[in-house]
């Protein structure tokens, strides 16, 4: 049974209501002598009342078309929430004399950010002594922010800690969200003297933030407010001078400004402006508090400037001038004692430089902090063909190098005094290991998060000397969750050109095969989709689903070449790799085309749209979230947010006819077919989305329905949010429950099953 055959009946007959039919108003949007007709370009005018009315009618139709799923959605939502410890405390992170943490409260959508004095016996590690009921750090993972349990000294679940008498609530997001449909923080930055908090708020989803300040000695906000800021801040001194970033009209972060606390923002000083539209700017502070760092980066080129924290009147100093195609980033270390003659680092202050200069997968070098030109860069970790170096962190006694090999992350620890190195152990494969908050420079403890598709996110404190890892907290999964009931493995598909493509997969150990399977993919910007645990996913796994991640080209899972081979004029590899993974899962007996669904978001939504056109028969259902499906129109329009910066990822179709022609061959909107019935589709959009405009999915849905009335497609637009969808955790869980209900229904041609039980599943 294939997807289109299974879903050949019309959406009207199934739903009992007809989908909206927007009028066609054809406009030629072609270039380079090519005629390209867009019937629905008028939907891009968000100020047109007819556009908003159309989006509202689509939402009403979606509600009607999916009304038969309400009971299942409610059942799934109840299951998901029942597994989550709604009232919870994150693991405290030590910074100076304080332990910083966040907590959630049942019934509230957002977190509270808090601190309390560190116990006097606390060490200099990330958390020191946890004290009553605490362990350090936030666990990463898909359920981040949704509440987690903790591990006591015995490893036993200890429950939520009681409120501390000395707790200070620094920020309650629930109060900030009152009266708004959306709330997200752009920065949360406590000053080095712990007396001032800089935080920024977005209440639309448009990712333009208002920067505010709170005096932590009184708990009151101060008067100065800075409008129209982007992500990233850095304190230049103890707590009176803050550096921040501003975006231009196209949403490109292009300026760094300096603000003096308790003064009008009109007196702020412009520190740097980047006029080349390919580049973003960012700002940060080194862990050793020596420098403010201004990063200037395009997709393929970078340049770094620094400013001594002790001399804010000094001019910015460039580490190494930009050269096209050369990327680098830096960290700072005070260096070995002046009399030192061996070890990892030379005597005196140094910058660690991570660069692809002469090393495709990057190398880690060191240079004196007063002689930073590339002629002074000396390798301490040479480049390797099979190991991608992604990041390096400097601490007083060690350097932590973040690596990727065989489509998995890993951590390498190098002792500064001896230059001896070792890898941190990972008990499962495939799995993911990543550093989390480690603000202290002088520490022998490194905090990381470990997870896999079967292991909940787990926070460890790692003693770099003894190589002993202490579990501080594991994301709790309430109810009868037992990790041993699930299995994970690594599969390898064979692409059309012979390349081996990794797949990470998870299912119940007693799953009946073949069975329903959800295949996820992304494949752009060198972003890796690493295997991680999700308690929300258990509702599908317990209904006989398998979940798989296709680590396709265009991502970074297999090194820099993996990215290069899936971008620009190699972009089609992303789509054909995904189809190769789907084919491998069918041929391996995991699923059938009639039981196979695919999901992706943003650039991953482009992937979903492209494979729908290339092989609609391969899938029974598709989920495309905020999909970048009208990519050619967007990349042709230099006035749209982020377009020019994207040319180094997709190519420049404005000036290059070959790029235009190539993008036209895969743009989902330009290749909608009228000779097939597409798989059943669930599509989302965000009215305030600055990254993928709402009109891309709206136009795509309209064109698919016009091509064939039998296409069963629903569109859900968040009218008060942006790219990330609803910001409240309960709203996000409800959305996930609806998508899960859609998938269960789409892949179940007969009765919708309940959760699998051990006595009803067979090998």
Task: Show the helix and strand layout.
Layout: H1 3-6, H2 11-15, E1 27-28, E2 37-38, H3 49-65, H4 70-82, E3 88-89, E4 93-95, E5 98-104, E6 112-117, E7 168-172, H5 173-177, E8 184-190, E9 196-202, E10 209-215, E11 220-221, E12 226-229, E13 233-235, E14 241-247, E15 253-260, E16 269-273, E17 280-285, E18 291-297, E19 302-308, E20 317-318, E21 328-333, E22 350-355, E23 363-368, E24 378-381, E25 388-394, E26 398-405, E27 408-415, E28 421-423, E29 432-435, E30 445-451, E31 458-463, E32 468-474, E33 486-494, E34 500-508, E35 517-521, H6 538-541, E36 546-550, H7 560-564, H8 572-587, E37 596-601, H9 603-614, E38 621-625, H10 631-636, H11 643-650, H12 657-666, E39 680-686, H13 695-707, E40 713-718, H14 729-746
Helix pairs in contact: 4-14, 8-9
């Amino acid at each position: 049974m294939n997807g289109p055959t299974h879903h050949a009946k019309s959406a009207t007959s199934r739903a009992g209501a007809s989908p909206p039919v927007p009028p066609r108003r054809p406009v030629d949007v072609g270039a380079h002598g090519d005629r390209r007709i867009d019937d629905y370009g008028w939907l891009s005018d968000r100020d047109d009342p007819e556009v908003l009315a159309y989006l509202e009618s689509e939402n009403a139709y979606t509600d009607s078309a999916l009304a038969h799923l309400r009971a299942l959605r409610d059942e799934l939502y109840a299951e998901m929430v029942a597994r989550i410890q709604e009232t919870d405390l994150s693991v405290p992170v030590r910074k100076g004399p304080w332990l910083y943490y966040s907590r959630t409260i049942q019934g509230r959508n957002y977190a509270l950010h808090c601190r309390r004095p560190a116990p006097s016996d606390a060490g200099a590690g990330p958390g020191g002594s946890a004290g009553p009921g605490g362990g350090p750090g936030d666990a990463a993972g898909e359920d981040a922010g949704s509440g987690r349990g903790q591990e006591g000294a015995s490893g036993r679940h200890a429950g939520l800690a009681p409120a501390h008498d000395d707790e200070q609530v620094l920020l309650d997001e629930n109060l900030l969200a009152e009266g708004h449909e959306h709330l997200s923080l752009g920065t949360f930055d406590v000053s080095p003297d712990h007396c001032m908090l800089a935080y920024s708020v977005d209440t639309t989803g448009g990712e333009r933030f208002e920067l505010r300040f709170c005096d932590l000695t009184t708990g009151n906000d101060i008067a100065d407010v800075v409008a129209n800021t982007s992500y990233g801040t850095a304190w230049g001194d103890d707590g009176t001078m803050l550096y921040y970033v501003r975006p231009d009209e196209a949403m490109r972060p292009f300026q760094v400004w300096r603000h003096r606390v308790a003064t009008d923002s009109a007196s702020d000083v412009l520190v740097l402006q980047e006029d080349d539209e390919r580049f973003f700017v960012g700002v940060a502070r080194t862990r050793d508090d020596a420098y403010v760092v201004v990063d200037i980066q395009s997709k393929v080129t970078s340049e770094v400037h620094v400013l001594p924290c002790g001399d804010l009147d000094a001019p910015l100093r460039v580490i190494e001038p930009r050269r096209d195609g050369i990327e680098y980033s830096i960290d700072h270390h005070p260096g070995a004692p002046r009399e030192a003659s061996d070890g990892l680092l030379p005597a005196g202050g140094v910058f660690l430089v991570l660069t692809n200069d002469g090393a495709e997968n990057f190398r880690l070098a060191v240079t004196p902090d007063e002689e930073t030109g590339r002629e002074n860069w000396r390798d301490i970790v040479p480049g390797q063909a099979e190991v991608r170096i992604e990041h390096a962190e400097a601490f007083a006694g060690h350097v932590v190098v973040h690596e990727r090999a065989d489509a998995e992350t890993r951590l390498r620890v190098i002792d500064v005094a001896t230059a001896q190195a070792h890898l941190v152990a990972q008990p499962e494969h495939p799995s993911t290991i990543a550093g989390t908050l480690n603000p202290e420079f002088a520490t022998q403890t490194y905090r990381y998060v470990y997870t896999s598709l079967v292991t909940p996110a787990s926070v460890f404190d790692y003693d770099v000397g003894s190589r002993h890892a202490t579990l501080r907290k594991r994301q709790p999964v309430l109810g009868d969750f037992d990790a041993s009931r699930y299995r994970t493995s690594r599969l390898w598909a064979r692409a059309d050109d012979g390349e081996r493509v990794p797949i990470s997969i998870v299912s119940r150990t007693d799953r009946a095969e073949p069975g329903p399977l959800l295949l996820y993919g992304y494949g752009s910007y060198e972003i890796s989709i690493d295997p991680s645990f999700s308690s929300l996913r258990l509702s599908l796994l317990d209904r006989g689903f398998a979940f798989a991640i296709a680590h396709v080209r265009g991502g970074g899972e297999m090194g820099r070449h993996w990215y290069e081979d899936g971008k620009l004029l190699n972009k089609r590899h992303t789509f054909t790799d995904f189809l190769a993974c789907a084919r491998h899962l069918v041929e391996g007996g995991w699923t059938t085309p009639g039981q196979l669904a695919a999901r992706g978001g943003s650039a991953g939504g482009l992937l979903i749209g492209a494979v729908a056109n290339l092989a609609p028969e391969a899938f029974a259902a598709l989920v495309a979230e905020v999909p970048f499906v009208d990519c050619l129109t967007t990349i042709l329009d230099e006035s749209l947010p982020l377009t020019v910066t994207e040319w180094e990822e997709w190519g420049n179709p404005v000036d290059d006819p070959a790029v235009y022609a190539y993008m036209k061959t895969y743009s989902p909107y330009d290749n909608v077919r009228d000779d097939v019935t597409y798989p059943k589709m669930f599509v989302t959009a965000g009215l305030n989305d600055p990254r993928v405009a709402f009109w891309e999915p709206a136009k795509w849905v309209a064109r698919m329905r016009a091509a064939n009335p039998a296409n069963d497609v629903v569109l859900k637009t968040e009218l008060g949010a942006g790219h990330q969808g609803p910001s409240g955790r309960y709203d996000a869980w409800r959305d996930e429950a609806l998508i899960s209900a859609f998938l269960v229904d789409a892949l179940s041609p007969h009765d919708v099953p309940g959760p699998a039980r051990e006595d009803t599943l067979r090998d």
